[in-house]
Structure formats: C-alpha cells, structure tokens
Amino acid sequence: MVSLSFAPIYFDYNATTPVDERVLEAMLPYFSTRYGNASSRHEYGRVALAALEKAREQVASAVGAHPTEVIFTSGGSEANNLFLKGAGASFRGAAAGNKAETVVIGATEHLCVLNAARQLRGQGWRLAQLPVDGGGRIRPADVEAAAREKPRRWSVMLANNETGVIQDIASLAATVQAVGPDCGWFHTDAVQALGKIPINFRALNAAGVHALTISAHKAYGPKGAAALIMDKRLDLMTQIAGGGQERGLRSGTENIAAIVGFGAACELAVSRLKARAKAQTVLRTRLEIRLGEMGATVFGMGVPRLPNTCFFAFPSVDGETLVGKLDRSGFAIASGSACSSAKSAPSHVLLAMGVPDELARCAARVSMGEKTKPAEIEGFLLALQETATKLSRFAANTRL
C-alpha cells in the first residue's frame, strides 16, 4: 500500500479536488443507514429517491437548468460519450446509401471527446476539427464555414483543462444557428468550468447550446458522479441499456451517495464562486509575473482563462522532468491533462495552438484551489527557479 510520507503542496486541482468536509458529511448516511435503491417502492427506496431528486435540483440550480434536464452519469467522460455516441447510434451510414454525416469538435477538446469522435469516424462519420488561434480560441469564421456543411453534432469545450482558455460558447453556438436551424445539435464540455466561472444553461440554450457536461470531482465533490444537462428536445439513444433509470438514457442503479455529494458540492460551488475566483486571480497574476521574469512562456496569455490555471514552459526544460523534480521538492503539479499524463507525446492542445513540438514538450501546469495560500505560491516559485535553473544548465551542457 502506498501512503504519503509527507504532504506535498497540491497544485493539480484541474485533475481532481479533495472532497469538501460538508460534502462528505452529506454523503455518509447513504453509505450506511440510508442505503436503499431509488427504484424500490418501500420506505428505504423512497428515502433514496428523495435524495436523488434533491441532488438533481441542486445540480440544475447551479447551472441555470431545470431538474428534468439533468441526466446523471458516472463521470464527465461518460456524459460526453452519451451525447456523441447517443447521437451517432442513429446513423445508418453508407450501407444505407446515405451521405456520411459530420461531427464537429474543437481541436483542443479533452481526449474523451476527441476519441469518441474518432470512434464515430470509424463507423462512417466524417470528423471535422475546428482550428484554434495562437491563444487557443476558436474563430467564428471557422465555425460558420463548418456550419455550412450541415453537420449532425457539435462539441466545443467551454474551458480547457490544460490552458484554462475559455471559449465564447454562446457566440459560437449562435453562429451555428445563424447559418440555419438544420445545422445539428451543439454540446459543450463544461467540466473544468464548474465552480470557477458562472454557467447558465438557460442562456446558453437560448443561444443554441443543447447540452453540456459537468462533473462533481472537479468542484470538491466525489469521483463517480457527473451529469449531462440537455435540452429535452434532444433525441439521444441510450448507451447503457437496463432498467430505464435517468429517463431511459442511463440505466443502472444510481450511485446515491456520490450523487448526493454532487448536489452538495454544486451548492457550495455557487456560493463561493466569486470569492474563490477573485483570490485565485490574484495568485495567478503573481505567479505569472514571476514566470515571465524567469523567462518562461505562459500559454493563453491575453485571452480569457480560468482564474486558477497557469500552463507554462521553460525552453529546453523537459516538462515531465520538471514535474518529477518538483514532486520530490514537495510540490505536486502536472505536465498537462491527468487523463494523458502517462504518455510522453506533447500536448495536442499546444500543438493545435501552433506551439512548436520542442516547446510543447516543456509544458507544465499549475492549477490552484480554494485553499491555496500566497505563501505556497512563493515557496513554489523559489523551488521552481532553482529546479529550472539546474535543468537548463544540464540541458545546455548536454548539447555541448
């Protein structure tokens, strides 16, 4: 069994967050005394069902949706797949003599969207990727051009998990709608946005967004609970058949404890959003000023970003090596997406932004949380400067 012999300073909140004590307290009864199945007709089941529906209301309220628009899933990846593959399941393909339908995604999407779209391509769909500019933002002109091809489905991330870059989703969706009402259904992966920036599904829906994904464990809730928020006019085919839970779109006995925690986390996220964002913006500004003084490149500077996220690189300092050295110095940071951290390839997000391969391999990410302190940032900067200087000298000597 692996245990932490000391407590490193945690700067990887975009990967996951600790469960808030109040969230855990809300969950605990559903592991013991309130263990009923929400589909059961007796008192135990009614208690579970009431908890399920309360959580649905809490989640809906946090993102400006109606409770009937909330479909619970096991995670953000499942919710994203439900949208993309649920739509794809109705495609009959070339065997039926039909023109191949198109799915459009952003070039900087999370791998669960990118790989789901690639699977659709393997089933006969056309896959189109929207390019981004040097700041990681999608250009409306490219969206308009893609919409003229009348694609079936769209998925564009609200806030990027690596760079923190925020897309103007309402504007992009409105651009699609302006081309014509037959330009397909529009989805946004809002997993990284929950608890960091405001999310209003009703406003997004009015602009042309038909579905969005959020996840509990990115906002001080438990792993194992997420939701697809969807316009009820959206017709999706279930990917998990069974007893017909979640309006028949996601069968299986609900994880009541995790869902209860999800609801509690959403309430807390909304109540603390402004204060959290203000504090983290101050810390990120301090961090990035010092990074600039050290000669680092900060990706996404000059465009709207999540207040807690900084993705940077020191030329000639390998990102994976830097992460390992800093871990041993007591600071837990990331080299990119937690879902792809085992791979040595450079970030596809940075490559899509036009970052050279050599610099992309040097990238590292700091993502802060609500308990991150100014003193922790200062300590990190001291360790970072010392470590980066040593690695730069080593790299220079190796080239001689």
Note down, in words, how this protein is organized.
This protein is an alpha/beta fold and 400 residues long. The chain folds into two domains: 9-17 and 274-399, Aspartate Aminotransferase, domain 1, CATH 3.90.1150; 21-267, Aspartate Aminotransferase, domain 2, CATH 3.40.640.10. It has helices at 21-27, 43-62, 76-88, 111-122, 140-147, 169-179, 201-207, 256-294, 319-328, 348-352, 357-360, 374-399, and strands spanning 9-10, 70-73, 102-106, 126-130, 153-155, 185-189, 211-215, 226-230, 297-298, 309-313, 331-332, 363-367. A seven-stranded mixed sheet has the order 2-8-7-6-5-3-4, with helices on both faces. Strands 9-10-12 form a three-stranded antiparallel sheet. Strands 1-11 form a two-stranded parallel sheet. The protein is globular and about 70 Å long. The model is unreliable at 90-97 (pLDDT under 50).
Given as residue ranges, the uncertain stretches (5+ residues, pLDDT < 50) are: 90-97
Tally of individual helices: 12
Biggest beta sheet summary: 7 strands, mixed
Radius of gyration: 22 Å
CATH homology superfamily of the largest domain: Type I PLP-dependent aspartate aminotransferase-like (Major domain)
Strand order of the largest sheet: 2-8-7-6-5-3-4
Q: In what range is the share of β-strand residues?
A: 5-15%
The helix/strand class is alpha/beta
CATH architecture of the largest domain: 3-Layer(aba) Sandwich
CATH class call of the largest domain: Alpha Beta
CATH topology of the largest domain, by name, is Aspartate Aminotransferase, domain 2
Shape: globular
H/E series: EHHEHEHEHEHEHEEHEEHEHHEH
Q: What is the percent of helical residues?
A: 40-55%
What's the number of domains?
2
Number of strands: 12
Mean pLDDT: 93
Distance between the termini: 43 Å
